[in-house]
Amino acid sequence: MQTIDRNKLFVASCLALLVTSLSFGIRAGLLDTWGVQFHLDKAEISTITATAFWGFPLAVIIGGMVVDVIGMKKLLLMAFLFHLAGILLTIFAGSFGNPFWSLFISTLLIGIANGTVEAACNPLVTSLYTDNKTTKLNHFHLWFPGGIVIGTLIVYFFGQKIAGTENLSNWQLLVGVMLIPTILYGWLFAKEQFPVTERVSSGVSTGEMYKALITPLFFFMIICMFGTAITELFTGQWIGVLLSNVSKDALLILAVSTGVMVVGRAFAGPIVHRLAPQGVLVISAILASLGLYILGHSGGSMVFVGALIFGMGVCYFWPTMLGFVSENLPKTGAVGLNLMGGAGMFAVSVYTMFMGGVYDSKIAAHLPAGADLKVYNSPDATETMKAALAEANKTAGPEIINTTLILPLILVVAFAGLFFYMRSKKTTA
């Protein structure tokens, strides 16, 4: 009988999450390229980007509801097929049909794959490491910022070598890099034996699980997940676009913020043990607020300082939110974890689509009176128009960051309340 090798399963899980994060990092580096090559405005780009974020919750919520029934292995093999199809369709976007729809559908498929990975891997990690959930979730989730760092550096360095111009002419090669970890994780998962989920192994009934979801604390955490996910993922996905006219190294700014997240999550154990998840969340919200403030009000080298502080802030958001729920509301099981992830990604998708229109309106507001933004974005735009558009972008990008700053400021108050609530609960226990 084949035994469960938790080390191999954990490595395969990290590779699957690496594909998820590479899709974020490489896409973040190609948004401007797609806009120029396919003549897409910011609203169209934001619609394509948001597609991944609402494909994710669709998959993660449905996956969370069926993972106990069909098993984590089948879900992850489905994720492999969705990743493979989405990557290939992205590579051939523009080769046939409307490139907008090719990118839209391919991004949707990748988003569904990403959500399916989360739906299976989060309960897999908590089932493999029942005595150390929050720390191991942080170790697992370090591959999300890790992949974004790798993806953005691939675009920044390798992209410059294959381009020959400011806009990448062979960006398909960069997207093709994602095929390597995709094939590896699919092969590893196909040959390994999986455990049952922790909820099933502990004997918690389906009725008890759904009852545990209807509690004020879980509802509070869902609402907070909206804010933490938007703060981390919207900013991370759009930072290259928002700051491209503020700094010529906008992609390196993203690499700095996510690089800090990799290091922070790698050393999460002693921090989580000392502060408890709720204490980590308070400090994270404070640092995220300070980092966004600096990013939205600075230029030059101070932008990198803001990125560093922002990365420290959002570093523990996602895995610690999941770890808190798994430790304090264990009966919610895989559904609880996946509802958290789905809620976060859904919030990001809505916010991204909304802010795409807001971004265009802010750009238009900084153009000459009566200017048509589509004309300024078109290939026929004059040099004067291009200069005016660049200046408008330079002003509008930080304005979007300053609008987003409101969310972590609210989270500071919310998590401070959670900290004192949990401390009083422990005192009276």
* CATH domain class name: Mainly Alpha
Rounded to the nearest angstrom, the distance between the terminal CA atoms is: 44 Å
The CATH homologous superfamily is called MFS general substrate transporter like domains
**Biggest β-sheet, characterized?**
none
- Based on CA atoms alone, the radius of gyration comes out at 21 Å
Description:
The chain is mostly helical and 429 residues long. It has a single domain (6-428), classed as Growth Hormone, Chain: A (Up-down Bundle). It is built from 19 helices and no strands. The chain has helices at 6-38, 42-70, 72-91, 99-128, 133-141, 143-163, 171-176, 179-191, 198-201, 206-213, 216-242, 250-266, 268-297, 302-314, 317-328, 333-365, 373-377, 383-404, 406-428. Helix 6 packs antiparallel against helix 12 and helix 11 runs antiparallel to helix 18. The termini are far apart.
Task: Give the tags.
single chain, 429 residues, mainly alpha, Growth Hormone, Chain: A, globular
Question: What's the short version?
Answer:
With 429 residues, the protein is mainly alpha-helical.
Topology:
Layout: H1 6-38, H2 42-70, H3 72-91, H4 99-128, H5 133-141, H6 143-163, H7 171-176, H8 179-191, H9 198-201, H10 206-213, H11 216-242, H12 250-266, H13 268-297, H14 302-314, H15 317-328, H16 333-365, H17 373-377, H18 383-404, H19 406-428
